[in-house]
Structure prediction request, 882 residues.
Amino acid sequence: MTEPILATHSLQKSFGALMATDDISIDLYPGEIHAVIGPNGAGKSTLIAQICGGLKPDAGRVELLGKDVTLTNTLTRAKAGIGRTFQISALAMEDTVLQNVLLGAVGDIGSPWRFLRPVLNDGSLRSKAADALKRVGLQDHAATRTSDLSHGQRRQLEVAVALTLKPKAFVMDEPMAGLGAEGSKTLTGFLDGLREEAPILLVEHDMDAVFALADRISVLVYGKIIETGTVDQIKSSKAVREAYLGGDA
Amino acid sequence: MSTILIIEQILNGLQSGIMLFLMAAGLTLIFGVMGLINLAHGSLYMIGAFAAAAVAGLTGSFVLALIAAMAAAAIAGVLVEMLVIRRLYATDHLDQVLATFALILIFSEGTRWVFGSFPLFLDIPDYLSGPVTLPGGIQYPFYRLVLICVGLLVAAGLGLLITRTRIGIQIRAGENDREMIAALGVDISKLYTLVFALGAALAGLAGALVGAIQSVQVGMGEPVLILAFVVIVIGGIGSIKGALIGALLVGLTDTLGGVFLPQLFKLFMEPSAAQSSGSALASMAIYILMGAVLIWRPTGLFGARP
Amino acid sequence: MIRERTLNGLVLVLLLAVPLWAMFNDQPFTITLATRAVIFALAAVGLNIALGLGGLVSLGHAAFFGIGGYAMGILAHHAQTYTPVMELPFLIEGTKSMPVIWLVAMVTSGIAAFLIGILSLRTAGVYFIMITLAFGQMFYFFSISWAAYGGEDGLLIYVRNDFPGLNTLVPINFFAICFTILCLVLLLNGLLARSPFGLALNAARQAPQRVQTVGLDPQRLKLVAFVISGVITGLAGALFADLNRFVSPTMFSWQMSGEIMIFIILGGNARLCGPVVGAVVFVMLEHFLGGLSEYWHIYLGALLLLVVLFARGGLVGLIAGREVAHD
Prediction:
């Protein structure tokens, strides 16, 4: 049995009386897309923050490639191999698309302490960036200012930046948010091919995308995972019906 | 070094601290509610002092002078808010710093143009001057005691305003979520102008009160402004309680440090070296205090936790 | 971008041409003015590395300007009075050699910037602004109370310091030294902005979370930028003190901090030559307007207000247009 790339064990987090994360254990195996779905307010963002490093859990463990990373910060986890995309784009808006991806390339080197040689003169940085842009299909927009990009294109850029770091696992926070039908389809197709490169923990609301992509789905309700299973299992699960549709659906 | 001296200095520290509170309270409200950093607050302090000196000179009444100080500062505040500050709410801190710095230049040189470069004098009225005998036989200037009392009254008044009145609720809500209260129908524009005017009036009052013990001159506001910033950093932005405690801490540290550090150094240094090293260290004492608070609590003692 | 580059070149050529013209027309005061502009420009370029690239609104940069000035003042003072700076634990003599003074100025400002930076960068936003302002004040009050070096009256240095191979008393020579330094620093600034460090710093200013998720530390980037910035402004301070042969606590004042920022904003803070243009404009205003009215600060304030409210890109922004994202 292969080891999970990413796993949480009995993660717990409360904010006062609110139990935002209640004994959550999920894992992510190589080659899979594991979707986490749930109604609003279920605690998805809190969970992501604990996995990626912005929030310390009250109890439980987060493991990446078997190593305990629970107490490490975002930086360390990024270097260890977590590639994250944000629900609300966190990109350098004044910079060009290329500059944003180059940031990823610089991060991949691990050290920004190069002061004199222009980034653009560095062949390896440029090619890493160009490759990432090509993979997401943004190569023609390299010189565009990020603030001029459409919403869907910014999503693609986020993925491109994550790609430059060759992460061991992707954690994506609602990448479909705000995309129209067309954009959703394109991104879905892209993510489908991405899973071979690194497994994806996909937190999503867009059910079409989830049912099309997910190998496994975990349903998060009021901080607890009420069910984990394949698409078919979840679709026919009584517990999930009750959670979404109420008692007598 | 007698107990009398110590008590005197503590009282002095409280007095300078409480006056600092008047500045800091306005600043912290303005920042807390409007998210605006206002460097021109020192100019409002100065305007208050000049207005008081002018009116006192004309009418001989200290009370009228104080009222004039608050009114002049408030009016200046309202004008500035409507003409300039309003355009800055949506901008970033750098723009606010630069624009309010420009206001300092305009106000300072403008005042110098109107009143000249020489300091004006504002006298403590006869009924407030002279020493008063405190329990224990200590003689202390009556006026400074009055300042302490006025300051504490203002602090209490502000506290009541914030916690017990409608405006206070709007202010507190505005600190947390200004878009929300706008959506709920609160006239944000009026609220902001009101808060700014309130802060300005407090600054003007402080300027007039302190102007009677120091002198009234151009540029008197900025050192106080910067000290008020230190107070806010120590106390935490947006917190009146923090402003009060921070101000008292700063006032006490500054006064007591200036007197006692040289004395302390005299214990193991020769007198002249002790005096100069002591005063040099005393001049840095407040900033060392600020640094220490920051290491422990980066958002101040009562500021919002990150 | 081509237009901006042309503008940059034009500015530098003008900055060189004016004092040369003055030299041939025997107007040494104009050369002094030009030197003043160059030194202010250097201080502003320094601040701009922290402010423009790093987004750090430091209202206390006069601290470094003053440290550089006092480094020069203290060393030269001891040299001209033939007393050592300190005897225990080891002997340090004064010196009037510019290169040595510059080195001391840069190292001490760098150390100060590191310490101030470490404390101040624990905070952000408005706290950072207030703290840097406060630290500037700390140095100001300290220098006033430091009687050994003149206190409020400052220190007078009788003769300009020495530079190997040049007679530094000749105005054009000292101008040349300062101008060369400015050009070198501008070159460095340009390279820095395009380097991986510059890219990461710029991103840290706009999206620090993003920088973290690519495995880089935005705090460390900002600290390094702050130190570099302090070092350059410190060097400018040493040159300024040398120009005036005088150093006093006013070099530490909040007004000085504000002025350095004004140079940047008048010219345009995201531009390479913005600080230079701003410094030149300021010195010209100071000279011409100041000659007309002793209340010229009112006009400076009004101009600054107009620029901030309506011409945010500064003069360079007005002339060269919207900044094109660099290739």
User: Anything to note?
Assistant: Chain B touches chain C through 44 residues (CB under 8 Å). The beta strands of chain B are 131-134, 138-141. Chain B has one domain: 3-296.
